[in-house]
């Protein structure tokens, strides 16, 4: 007679371990781990497959020592180097540097 509870206890332990795993996995993915764990614990056969289908991708882990992405300035490429060998020319309208031989300013569009 006492052997029936051992099987129930083993099933209870398995459901508890799966619910704990789901809770930690859901929290890592920005989902509500407590609600998913409760659903998986009580109706594992229903909630576990649903969770595995609808779970979100893992949240990006930022390496330690780096500032968060929102505090980094946007990337801007360095300005092109001035042409070599010739004196630098500037637009008479806006003052932007222009390359020798061009007919229009690349900044304001006025004829050079």
Kindly describe this structure.
By secondary structure, the chain is mainly alpha-helical. The protein has three helices and two strands; from the N terminus they run αααββ. The longest helix has 26 residues, at 3-28.
Write the layout of secondary structure elements.
Layout: H1 3-28, H2 33-42, H3 44-54, E1 89-90, E2 97-98
Antiparallel strand pairs: 1-2
The gist of it:
The chain is mainly alpha-helical and 112 residues long. It contains 3 helices and 2 strands, in the order αααββ. The termini are far apart.
Order of helices and strands: HHHEE
Indicate the multimeric state. Answer: single chain
Largest sheet at a glance?
A: 2 strands, antiparallel
Span of the ends, CA to CA: 101 Å
How much helicity do the residues have? 40-55%
Helix-and-strand structural type: mainly alpha
Beta-strand fraction estimate: under 5%
Please give the order of strands in the largest beta sheet. 1-2
* Regions with little confidence, pLDDT below 50 for 5+ residues: none
Overall 3D form? rod-shaped
Mean pLDDT: 80
Extended strand count: 2
* Helix run count: 3
Radius of gyration: 32 Å
């Amino acid at each position: 007679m006492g052997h029936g509870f051992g099987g129930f206890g083993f099933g209870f332990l398995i459901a508890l371990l799966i619910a704990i795993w789901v809770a930690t996995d859901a929290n890592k993915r920005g989902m509500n781990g407590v609600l998913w764990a409760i659903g998986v614990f009580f109706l594992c056969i229903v909630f576990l497959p649903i969770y595995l289908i609808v779970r979100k991708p893992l949240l990006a882990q930022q390496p330690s020592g780096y500032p968060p992405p929102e505090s980094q300035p946007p990337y801007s490429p360095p300005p092109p180097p001035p042409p070599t060998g010739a004196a630098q020319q500037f637009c008479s309208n806006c003052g932007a540097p222009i390359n020798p031989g061009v007919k229009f300013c690349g900044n304001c569009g006025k004829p050079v």
